[in-house]
Amino acid sequence: xxxxxxxxxxxxxxxxxxxxxxxxxxxxxxxxxxxxxxxxxxxxxxxxxxxxxxxxxxxxxxxxxxxxxxxxxxxxxxxxxxxxxxxxxxxxxxxxxxxxxxxxxxxxxxxxxxxxxxxxxxxxxxxxxxxxxxxxxxxxxxxxxxxxxx
Amino acid sequence: xxxxxxxxxxxxxxxxxxxxxxxxxxxxxxxxxxxxxxxxxxxxxxxxxxxxxxxxxxxxxxxxxxxxxxxxxxxxxxxxxxxxxxxxxxxxxxxxxxxxxxxxxxxxxxxxxxxxxxxxxxxxxxxxxxxxxxxxxxxxxxxxxxxxxxxxxxxxxxxxxxxxxxxxxxxxxxxxxxxxxxxxxxxxxxxxxxxxxxxxxxxxxxxxxxxxxxxxxxxxxxxxxxxxxxxxxxxxxxxxxxxxxxxxxxxxxxxxxxxxxxxxxx
Lengths: 150, 266
Known about the structure:
The complex is a heterodimer.
Chain A (H helix, E strand, L loop, with lengths): L1 H26 L3 H24 L6 H12 L7 H9 L3 H16 L3 H6 L2 H29 L3
Chain B lengths: L14 H17 L2 E5 L2 E5 L1 H13 L6 H26 L3 H6 L1 H6 L5 H13 L5 H6 L5 H11 L4 H31 L4 H8 L4 H14 L4 H44 L1
Antiparallel strand pairs in B: 1-2
Helix pairs in contact in B: 1-2, 3-12, 6-12, 8-9, 9-11, 10-11, 10-12, 11-12
């Protein structure tokens, strides 16, 4: 467990530094200004990973992390103002770029399987993604309009 | 499949990998976002999309070795964890809004019925057999692969179908959703907030690409887009499997049976 925590901190730290530099290169936010927000996000992740280990229920750590993030930023939570203020300096898109860079390197190994898919498979798979995406958007649109939210 | 924690040991020492990623991030963020007008709509090219393509390209050069590619996989999970923490702190202050949109968030989870209605008939029309059931019953992420393997076995036609969908999604999913979400939101009369909900398909990188492109097209709606896509992704993660078990798969089976019977009848 302690060994794991150490690995998590190191890797989240490395990932965080990369994201902060991207945050600077792409969104002109100086790394120093975004460091408190990044530390905050890393602490939330660690809390989620540790809860996952401590609580003997099969509940994914990413769900804990999302819920902790929501709770500590709700207006009634002590210090939530600071949490929101600090984390605003870390751009969402700056976190996404390194994720997809690592993903690109990782999916290289799936590439040989990918090129073996026939054209029919590609057509159908494209329609599956398009169908899910459009299907969800149409249902959401109908209900949001019905509720008068949009 | 996404890595487990034990495989994390020592990955932080892979400096070659981290340096490559840092290099990719700096270059792609400096290039910035490009907007390609398509009629009244816009296709958005985001740094994260270049990052994915450059990463994939580097895999085929001596810069990236097998070890880096293996080590990169569990780090994605950690990166997605940070992304979800960030989404959490955006949802927190706007939680009342998210709750008000609860009915839409819940029901749009049934959106993969769209898949069955659009993709399944085409699959059958193209001459696919039982592979079509595995492929089109859902968007084919980890829980869906598990479900099909459990029900039909790994070497069944259904199993081959769901694996094909999984591989396609892994390699092409984020790029595809990133390109079409901004385009559809600018081209169709549907609200960007509806597409934000649709972005939460249950995969961190696909959600990031789809919602990122919406944010770039509608920066004034950023916090609502993030809150809705994040909440929807969380719901997909927790309900996606159940929607597949109780609605997606049975419905796919029913339509498949009806369509193939009709064909034999003619």
